[in-house]
Amino acid sequence: MQSGSSALRASVAAAGLAMGGFLSPVLAQDVTGTWLRDTGASRVRFAKCGEAICGTLAWLKDTNGPAKVGQRIFYDMKPAGAGKWSGNAFNPEDGKNYSGTMTLSGDMLTTSGCVLGGLICRSVKWSRTTP
């Protein structure tokens, strides 16, 4: 037999699980917001752009390089499964466009740019920041 407070906790937990079944897939896949690169060199702000997601440089540690604040480096990123997007990425360092993917896992985002049909890829990890 459960005490009153145990029964209440169980009811609240069950309600949270029930609501989570409706809300968590949407929240878990929300990549919008500002993300800090694992090296601490830049921040990218992801937002909707039409039917896709785009990422724009929001801050740079070194403003003397080829990358510029306000430059779009991820574009046309469309859903490609749970917590995944595919589209295009621009690398300001070499001035080239690549096929790009993003994978979200909690507050960690991994972006990859690939050439040769995905044979050669480079990945970068990002952590979610507060605005």
Give a verbal description of the structure.
With 131 residues, this protein is of the alpha+beta class. The chain folds into 2 domains: 1-30; 32-128, Lipocalin, CATH 2.40.128.520. 19% of the residues lie in helices and 50% in strands. It has 1 helix and 8 strands, in the order H-E-E-E-E-E-E-E-E. An 8-stranded antiparallel barrel has the order 1-2-3-4-5-6-7-8. Strand 6 and strand 7 form a beta hairpin. The longest helix has 25 residues, at 4-28. It is globular, with a radius of gyration of 19 Å. 15% of the residues are buried.
List the helices and strands and how they pair.
Elements lengths: L3 H25 L4 E5 L4 E8 L2 E9 L11 E8 L4 E8 L4 E10 L2 E8 L4 E9 L3
Antiparallel strand pairs: 1-2, 1-8, 2-3, 3-4, 4-5, 5-6, 6-7, 7-8
Shape: globular
CATH topology of the largest domain: Lipocalin
Low-confidence stretches: 1-28
* Overall tally of domains: 2
Total number of beta strands: 8
Biggest sheet: strands, sense, closure? 8 strands, antiparallel, barrel
Strand order of the largest sheet: 1-2-3-4-5-6-7-8
What is the CATH class of the largest domain?
A: Mainly Beta
Helix-strand string: HEEEEEEEE
Helix content: 10-25%
Q: What is the end-to-end distance? A: 47 Å
In terms of DSSP E residues, the strand content is: over 45%
If classified by CATH, what would the architecture of the largest domain be? Beta Barrel
Global mean pLDDT: 81
Radius of gyration: 19 Å
Q: Classify the secondary structure makeup into a structural class.
A: alpha+beta
How many helical stretches?
1
